[in-house]
Amino acid sequence: MPESIEEIKACINELRGDSSTPKNVCNKVGAVLALLESDGDMSINVSKALNILEELSDDINIESFTRTQLWNLVSLLERVA
């Protein structure tokens, strides 16, 4: 499982580092990263992170490439949950 969390963190950092990623997406995935790095029940943190990402991916103003990256993160998190 730690490899999966590290893979997710790497994907989040890649998304946040992309200059084409909107600021609101960077902020939300930053919140997801904080959840994954926090102490506490990982299953609860993963569920909260999934909720954030799914809500964000429903935004019609998100570019299709960014939405695909968000779905990839959701898929990775679902494997960990």
Chart the SSEs and their pairings:
Layout: H1 2-17, H2 23-37, H3 42-57, H4 64-80
Helix pairs in contact: 1-2, 1-4, 2-3, 3-4
What is the gist of this entry?
By secondary structure, the chain is mainly α. Helix content is 79%, strand content 0%.
Describe the protein:
There is one protein chain. The model has no long low-confidence stretch (mean pLDDT 91). With 81 residues, this protein is mostly helical. The protein has one domain (2-80): Ta0600-like (de novo design (two linked rop proteins)), CATH 1.20.1440.50. The protein has helices spanning 2-17, 23-37, 42-57, 64-80. Helices cover 79% and strands 0% of the residues.
- How many separate domains make up the residues? 1
Structural class: mainly alpha
Relevant CATH superfamily: Ta0600-like
What is the radius of gyration? Answer: 12 Å
**Separation of the first and last Cα atoms:** 10 Å
Number of strands: 0
> Per the principal axes of the C-alpha atoms, what is the gross shape?
globular
The second-level CATH architecture is: Up-down Bundle
> The biggest beta sheet, please?
none
Topology pattern, helix = H, strand = E:
HHHH
Give the strand content.
Answer: under 5%
Helix content: over 70%
Number of helices: 4
CATH-derived topology: de novo design (two linked rop proteins)
Average predicted local confidence, pLDDT = 91
